[in-house]
Amino acid sequence: MSVWLRELASLPEDVPAVFAERFNSGDAALLAEVYEESAVLAVGAGEAVSGAALHAANGRLRELGVPIVVRPRQTYRNGDLALLIVDWVVEGPGRDGAAVRFGGTATDVVRRGADGRWRYVIDNPFGPRPDALPGGGGVRG
C-alpha cells in the first residue's frame, strides 16, 4: 500500500509540514528531498554536518519510531530565501515502549530552487539551545 505525501513546498512556510510528513513516513529518501544537496544541520554548539552525516542524524531520530509535530511560528522571506521559526516536538512511546519527549524551537533557512520548490539550506532544530536533546549534545551519534 502506498502512502500519498505532499509535494515539496511551493511556499516557505509549508516546508516544516512537508518535513514532518516525510519524517513520519519513515522513508529516508523522501526526507532527504526536503534538503538542498549542500544543506547543513546544526548538531551541537558551533557544529554542523552535511551530506551523509546530516541524513544519518535524522535517521537516528527516525529510528526512535516517534512522530514529530511541527508548529510554524514565523516566516521572514527575502526573495528566494526565508528564515523559519518553528516549534516542534517528538513525543510518544518509543519502539521499546519507553516514553520519549524532546523538542525545541528551530531557526531554519530555506531557499527556493530553480524548480520553484523550497528546501532547507540550514536546519538548526534547537536554535540557540543545541544541548536540548536528552543527555545534551544536539543530534550527534
UniProtKB/TrEMBL annotation:
It holds the Pfam family DUF4440. InterPro entries: DUF4440, NTF2-like_dom_sf. It comes from the Bacteria. Residues 20-119 form the DUF4440 domain. This is DUF4440 domain-containing protein. It comes from Streptomyces gulbargensis.
